[in-house]
Specification:
141 residues, 4 helices, 27% strand, Aminopeptidase, alpha+beta
């Protein structure tokens, strides 16, 4: 069986090196808003939360990052990144993040993800709310 566990900020250094390759999977497809080092610092300062996907033998299948966003009208748990191997074997572990988010008084979850990930999560009640587009304008073409 595969599980997902939230890691206390004081224990992050014990598992961080094992998580980096999985976090980079998602971060490599971003627009470089933040580095894995930025994510580490935000987890250590409790601005973000680290999650590990693992089996009972402590084999790690993936890692994820969440952040609680305080909008003016509600609190939302945002999944910043979620990467790993054999995703279809542990997709249902997202229910654990949902339960944790409810316990943090969040009213919903949100994530910016690619279409393939979106298709996998529709079976769990997720739907497209809006589309985020991006363009790098930092260099002259």
């Amino acid at each position: 069986m595969i599980y997902i566990s939230g890691i206390e900020y004081k224990d992050i250094d014990k598992v961080w090196d094992c998580c980096v390759p999985f976090l980079e999977l998602g971060n490599d497809k971003s627009q470089n808003e933040m580095t894995v080092d930025d994510i580490y610092n935000m987890c250590c300062s409790q601005e973000m939360q680290l999650w590990i996907i693992h089996d009972e033998d402590r084999n790690i299948y993936g890692a994820g990052i969440t952040q609680i966003i305080l909008y003016p009208n509600k609190s939302v748990c945002r999944i910043i990144t979620l990467g790993g191997k054999d995703f279809d074997d542990w997709t249902d572990t997202i229910n654990t993040i949902e339960e944790w988010a409810r316990n943090q008084d969040c009213e919903s979850l949100e994530m910016w993800c690619r279409k393939g990930f979106q298709r996998k999560l529709t079976d769990y009640g997720y739907k497209q709310i809006y589309t985020v587009l991006g363009k790098d304008i930092s260099t002259i073409h």
